Amino acid sequence: MAHSSTTKQSDISLSNCGYSKVLDIISNKWTALIIYAMENGKIRYGEMLKRVEGISKKMLTQTVRKLERDGLVQRHITPTVPPSVEYSLTTLGETLLQPMKELRQWGRVNYTQVVDARVKYDFAYTTDSHEADSINR
């Protein structure tokens, strides 16, 4: 949509944008990894803890609870001693797998270009800063 200087209202809003609401659900760095851990079906808590590198018990618990609250994950408790707990994606959670796989593939193909752009930007910015510093002396 073209920007007009006569526009009085914003046409892009965090509160009304469905895309930003979805990103709010999945943008936590652990969420995608936990969803990937469940992409092949039920998984026990301890196995997920081992599979997701660097996650703490506290963060895993908080993240699966959030995903459960959002309707993306379901918890299965088997009444054994001690109780056996497994997690899996709900039907709704499974609908996220394809777009997330596409985003993962985009990252595999394009992330080196992002890194290269950052290096070029940082070099140009650092070079400009040094030039400005030497001029101001």
Automatic annotation (TrEMBL):
Residues 17-115 form the HTH hxlR-type domain. It comes from the Bacteria. InterPro entries: HTH_HxlR (IPR002577), WH-like_DNA-bd_sf (IPR036388), WH_DNA-bd_sf (IPR036390). Keywords: DNA-binding, Transcription, Transcription regulation. Pfam families: HxlR. Coiled coil: none annotated. PANTHER family: HTH-TYPE TRANSCRIPTIONAL REGULATOR YODB, TRANSCRIPTIONAL REGULATOR, MARR FAMILY. This is DNA-binding HxlR family transcriptional regulator.
